[in-house]
Amino acid sequence: MIKVVLYSTWGCHLCEQAETVLGNAGITFRVVDIVDDDQLFQQFRLHIPVVAAAESLLYWPFNEIAVLNWANEIKAKDTK
User: What is the CATH number of the domain that holds 40?
Assistant: First the structure.
């Protein structure tokens, strides 16, 4: 199973939508608030929500199908 991170911040309505999309897609993830890390804040402040796994990033907007396709591509690369 891949480890998925959702880069987010408090009060971000798009981030809340992204959490719902990931949950509906059956993706297990952990949320990382970018405000707690200066480097992450600089990298993602204009782009959140962003989903990350295995050095691959998926930027908003995305839906359940896009998330599942993205996750399947990562899993396929991991098995090679």
Answer: 3.40.30.10
pTM, rounded to two decimals: 0.92
Task: For the chain, give the longest Cα–Cα distance.
Answer: 39
| pLDDT mean by block of 10 residues, the chain; 80 residues | 93 98 98 97 96 97 98 87
17 CB neighbour count, 10 Å cutoff:
15
- Distance CA(19)–CA(31), nearest Å, equals 9
Domain total in the chain:
1
Q: What is the dihedral of CA 48, 11, 31, 50, to 10 degrees?
A: -10
